[in-house]
Specification:
This protein is an alpha/beta fold and 311 residues long. It is built from 10 helices and 10 strands. The protein has helices at 33-42, 56-65, 87-92, 109-119, 131-146, 160-171, 223-230, 233-255, 273-287, 301-306, and strands spanning 2-3, 21-27, 46-48, 71-75, 99-106, 151-154, 181-188, 199-202, 260-267, 291-296. Helix 2 (56-65) links the parallel strand 3 and strand 4 (71-75).
């Protein structure tokens, strides 16, 4: 079903070669594809859900011939059936008429099972097998598409509103065509590296506040914890060197047409060192004139409450 955004919200952005933008959303059932499509629609994208694979080239051709619509978003997923096997080849041919971008959404099995249970909706692969087996089968069938994605987002810990904010940060029309949207994030290696990371830095070489009893249940956002981490010379040198590296790299990414970048800092649990470093790097990038957001993937609710003070 096609949903046309109002003309008042349609603000075409300049893009390379003057081609329109086509965002293709795919991924696991229950991972939030409908929410992402709606967020893009609200940003002025012409939106189409469940477009058959064989119609994508024609849609891209029509988009290229229509000066009134310069941004569009479509959803292609497991509902396509056997036709989904042709998608990687079809997507690879789109660059002649549009600037394509492929977003792949996924989530952990537990999160997907919970979402299906809450909505009481059957899995698109049918009810002849358990939800867990359907999810595993869907992962396997979508693996070739995931391997070609420009952006992979794991939505396990996102609410609908948080996922919408991520999409808005990445795709909202910006005043200067050369801007790049930067997301600085912290994480814990025990929970895995964020799938959408572009640059990853390991800060486990810094002294760990977790072994100090008064800091154990706080986070790197607590002023005392941040002061402790900052008290070591290697912390100051690391911050300076990484800031210099990023300030050097970012203009090159911009010239290559990259519109967003995720910079991830990891420590053991994602509670102390990586949090403090991510917050500080975000401040340094803003001071250097870049648009940067910060997120902390692995801070638990209890630690967020305990460490409510900002560094």
């Amino acid at each position: 079903m096609a949903r046309q955004s109002s003309p008042a919200n349609r603000h075409p952005r300049k893009n390379r070669a003057g081609k329109p933008d086509l965002v293709v959303i795919t991924g696991l059932s229950g991972s939030g594809k409908a929410s992402v499509l709606k967020a893009l629609e609200d940003l002025g994208y012409y939106s189409v859900d469940n477009l058959p694979v064989e119609l994508i080239p024609k849609f891209a051709e029509l988009l290229g011939d229509n000066p009134a619509v310069r941004r569009a978003a479509i959803v292609v997923d497991i509902r396509e059936g056997t036709g989904l096997r042709r998608f990687p080849e079809v997507f690879a041919r789109l660059r002649g008429s549009v600037n394509p971008q492929l977003i792949f959404l996924e989530a952990d099995d537990g999160a997907l099972v919970r979402r299906f249970s809450e909505t009481r909706r059957p899995h698109p692969l049918g009810t002849g097998r358990s939800i867990v087996k359907s999810i595993a089968l869907e992962r396997a069938r979508l693996a070739p598409i995931r391997a070609t994605a420009d952006l992979i987002i794991n939505t396990s810990q996102y609410t609908v509103h948080e996922l919408r904010a991520v999409i808005e940060d990445r795709f909202r029309h910006r005043g200067r065509g050369s801007e790049i949207m930067i997301n600085v994030t912290s994480f814990g290696y025990r929970n895995g590296v964020p799938a959408d990371s572009d640059l990853v830095f390991d800060v486990r070489f810094l002294p760990n506040p977790n072994y100090i009893p008064r800091f154990k249940h706080l986070t790197g956002q607590n002023p005392a914890v941040a002061k402790y981490i900052r008290s070591f010379p290697q912390t100051i040198e690391f911050l300076a060197r990484i800031t210099d590296l990023l300030v050097y790299l970012l203009p090159h990414y911009i010239r290559e047409g990259k519109s967003y970048l995720t910079i991830a800092f990891g420590c053991t649990g994602g509670q102390h060192r990586s949090v403090m470093i991510a917050d500080e790097i975000r401040k340094q990038l803003i001071n250097a004139g870049f648009d940067a957001k910060v997120s902390h993937r692995d801070i638990t609710f209890e630690r967020k409450t305990a460490g409510a003070g900002r560094a």
